[in-house]
Amino acid sequence: MEKSSFNLVVIIAGIDEEYQNDILTGIEEFAAEECVNISVFVSFSGVMGNHRHDVGEFNIFRLPDFSLFDGAVLLTNTIAYQPVIDNILRRIRLAGIPAVSIDNDIQSFYHIGIDNGKAMREITEHFISKHKCRCFNYVSGPVDNPESQERLDSFLAVLEENNITIESERIYYGDFRSPSGRDAIEQFMKSDLPMPDAIICANDVMALSVMTVLNASGFKIPEDIKVSGFDDTFSARNFPTELTSVERPLKKSGLIACKTLINHLKGIDQKRSVILDMHPHFTESCGCTDNSDHLSDVKTFKNMNYSSFKKVGSTSEYVSAINRLSCQLIECDSLNEFSQALKPFIREIGAEEFYLCICSDWNLETESCREKSSNFTVNGYTNDILVPISYRKGRFTELKPFSSGEILPGLFDSSNHGKMYYFIPLHFRERCLGYIAILNSKFPLQSSLFQTWCITISNMLENIRKIISLDLAVQKLNKLYTVDTLTGIYNRNGFVNGSAPLFKHCVEKQKSVMLMFIDMDGLKQINDNHGHSAGDDAIHGIANVIAESCVCGEVYCRFGGDEFIIFGADFKESDADALTARINRNIKKYNDTENFPFNLSASIGYHIAVPKEGEDIFNLVTVADDVMYKEKKRKKTSKYLKSPDKKQISEK
Questions:
Q1: What Å distances lie between residue 29 and 10, 19, 392, CA to CA?
Q2: 630 exposed, middle or buried (CB, 10 Å; 0-12, 13-18, 19+)?
Q3: Is the pTM of this model over 0.90?
Q4: Could you give the CA distance from residue 430 to residue 409 in angstroms, rounded to a whole number?
Q5: Cα 482–483–485 angle (5° rounding)?
Q6: Beta bridge partners of 436
Q7: Mean pLDDT of all residues in the chain?
Q8: How confident is the model at residue 80 (pLDDT cuts 50, 70, 90)?
Q9: H or E element: which one contains 578?
Q10: Number of helices (H) and strands (E), helices first, in the chain?
């Protein structure tokens, strides 16, 4: 029985570039027309010049379990790190699903491409025969990229056929990104070699950067130096000096890649490799104007202007949205505040669905996570994924935590048809924070600012993580400052902090306060007969008794050694007597139930007074201490040790 719908996965990097954008547009059109579900896993790697950032970006490719999908479309030529590519290919082969590689011809996979060698040959021969160029520089893509190597090999072959030599210094290896064009010109200009007649570039993005830097450096194009690119992108056609390039059916590549997979799944025979037609477009940057000049048609020119106008307007709107988003998120101190601040901006990007998927250890809140904080998630995702934001059908809903193995609940629901999800990593450097899932939104392909939007969310999430971590550290330091390490109750610092506002209120309202001083009896005998460890147990026992007895909002602490104090606000003598009785009952209960070779006993004294303005709370402590001491003198405290047969206090 034939499936009603198929689920395809797309692996790609840098969708802000026109090459990737056009291919994804073709895939998107196919998904809508054929009711195929597409999950696009995107990284923005290789553009920040930061390896740790790239590690965080690459992690998104570890998220998909390829065995859950029916087929895969791969643009590995956009991923500038071979170990990541190798890992992806290995997992796809293990999953046993069919895959189509666009441009890179990978063994055992379907292939959609062009004849890179033929296209570059035509460009190079044109520069030699038509424009009489004899001195060339070349801006290549990555040295380990098959497409890049094909184009370079063809260029070098044409030079050799025409008896033209080229020094190695005239070849620059970039990464198909705009900064490579700038860096190439800077390197060429620093060289002792004269500038060339022409610069051939392996793609349009680098070529446009080359022309921008040349113009800024005083070189005229094409009079001084001729330039060519490859891909014939929108930007190349609309640059002030239109770029000579190679026109490619990029959108068609995406369509055919998906169609190839569906045919395979339906058992339809087809070729393993499809080579699409392409042809050079010779124009202003090499000194040519062909019959297809885009500026010769007024209607075409107006349409181009309107398209540019829309792009500028859209960019301005997104810049404004990102600036507002940054200002809102920077004020957040918790994940809940962060989620509430982000929600209005989700509506602005026009997504049918949006999910903020966070790793369960993203902020290391739990004790177990804090103990292993140096081992935060880098490779893969935590088993449990939290979803602080779930947006679907025009409203925000609650989505329970789910397993990262699901990728997203309902993703493979048989009722889903024609959906296109984008999965984008959230991370800070290599630390994995989670990922974003967006359904059927134009924002990822429509704006070059989508990457900036995602980075803003990641950085602000990391900012909150650090705030939480700092708060935890402050709490820990505050605990060390205010809590007695032996007993776990307040020390003097904690007592001052805890009682100060209550004492101040009683001063202002002229309410009475109570200070109770408690001194444990017989600690020396316990230490002498049973050791200091037993003495510590006794001190801890008194602290537990006090904590159990203070049930009316009293503030208490270990004052020092075997001494304790209790503060009560708005206390009457009857309240103090009741507290004293509770303490004595709990001491007896302790002695009757605990199996220690000693009995607890304590001397208690209290003082009640209405405090005056400027009076120190410790003045009252001194008075209470005197009362306690008088009580202690009346008691016989020569021995507080248990006999072998009795658990009662032995007094003499």
A1: 14, 16, 22
A2: exposed
A3: no
A4: 26
A5: 140
A6: 356, 424
A7: 87
A8: confident
A9: helix 573-593
A10: 19, 22
